[in-house]
Amino acid sequence: MDWQTSEDTVPSAPVTEADARSLLGRPPATGAWRDGDPPGRRRFAPLGPLRTESGDEIPAVRLAYETWGTLNEARDNAILILHALTGDSHVRGPAEPGHPTSGWWDDIVGPGGPVDTDRWFVVAPNMLGGCQGSTGPASIAPDGYEWAARFPYLTVRDQVAAQARLADTLGVETWAAVIGGSMGGMHALEWAVALPERVERLAVLSAPPVNTADQIALNSVQLGAIRLDPRFAGGQYYDAGDGDGPHRGLALARRMALLNYRSPTELNQRFQRSWQSGVSPLGHGGRFAVESYLDFHGNKFTRRFDANSYLILVEAMNSHDVGRDRGGVEEALQRVEARTLVLGIDSDRLFPIDGQHRIARSIRHTIDGDHAVVLASDFGHDGFLIETASVGAHLRRLLEA
């Protein structure tokens, strides 16, 4: 899994006293955006009922999305940007009412940027099952109560089906480019395989062709941490007061996940064996700085995310296998018609670079032959969010191709 908020697009740093004070007070039972909250820059697209791969039906699906730039008369300048697991539609813009964090890719998307909004019409939806305006477990079901644990199991393919309906609603028949990183890269890859005629260019950043047993195993302990929190209450926690929701389990899941997003090199260089304060952690009750760092970000996460959504989205990520029922990965990737950029990070321990090379070998129209672009970075998986100068240069190459 991956983190994708503005504060996570910079190198790790020790937690200050001001940081700690910012999280005083009890966290809400859910950090989901709810109807009645400030909409911010979101727009909302009602998409009607959706039947999932597993056979369940969601009677009324809505996707929240944001846009930048202008769709031209020919409707051929639209770019779809797909966020990572815990991201949202707020690719660009300040933190403000409705948006707890500033844009997570401000250096990439904007006037004159690598994805130039003076030229391109950029659309970024919050994925189905998410908790920032799109239909998900915190949404109200037809019976007037939150879906909670009743929300149907989703696959990456279900989420792409909802995104395709959004494209229809916007009048976009073909995307000039579909760009996604991490879980968003899974969606981008699925777009190009399932709907090749609707994707002219494709950028797959730090994403694998399948979620492996190792990755599923890492995910399973995070899901267990949430479900074992007594305040999770089987997913029925939305009426709980502040501090009485499953924030401990969700924060622990986040702490586990963070260990996979950054590299040992970065954590060792940033924190070494430093203490958080003058109190020794060696039997005297103090803490190592890296422990406080993980706690701070775990606790902060509970204020902007929903535990049930985390379960739904991680299980959707586990479903990812672009070759499922398509003759295997290599045969499936032969369906891609888009001119493609495949990019990975050399220190990524969540989705190692061999997965990106496998994708590049099987797509016929990559701009770099049968090898992925490999960025050298100490930042691990999150390098695709942090190394914006290098990532931006490669996206420019793709969009100019």
Task: Give a brief outline of the structure.
This protein is an alpha/beta fold.
Q: How would you describe this structure in keywords?
A:
401 residues, alpha/beta, two-stranded parallel ribbon, 10 strands, 14% strand, globular, disordered N terminus
Topology:
Elements: H1 17-21, E1 43-51, E2 57-68, E3 78-82, E4 109-110, E5 115-116, E6 121-125, H2 156-170, E7 177-181, H3 183-194, E8 201-205, H4 213-227, H5 247-261, H6 264-271, H7 289-301, H8 307-318, H9 329-333, E9 339-345, H10 353-362, E10 373-375, H11 383-386, H12 388-400
Parallel strand pairs: 3-6, 3-7, 4-5, 7-8, 8-9, 9-10
Antiparallel strand pairs: 1-2, 2-6
Helix pairs in contact: 2-3, 4-5, 4-8, 5-7
Account of the 3D structure:
- The protein is globular, with a radius of gyration of 20 Å.
- The chain is built from twelve helices and ten strands.
- With 401 residues, the protein is of the alpha/beta class.
Main beta sheet strand tally, sense and closure = 8 strands, mixed
| Helix share, percent | 25-40%
Q: Helix-strand pattern, N to C?
A: HEEEEEEHEHEHHHHHHEHEHH
Note poorly predicted spans.
Answer: 1-7
- The number of helical segments is 12
Strands of the widest sheet, in order across it, are 1-2-6-3-7-8-9-10
Specify the overall morphology: globular
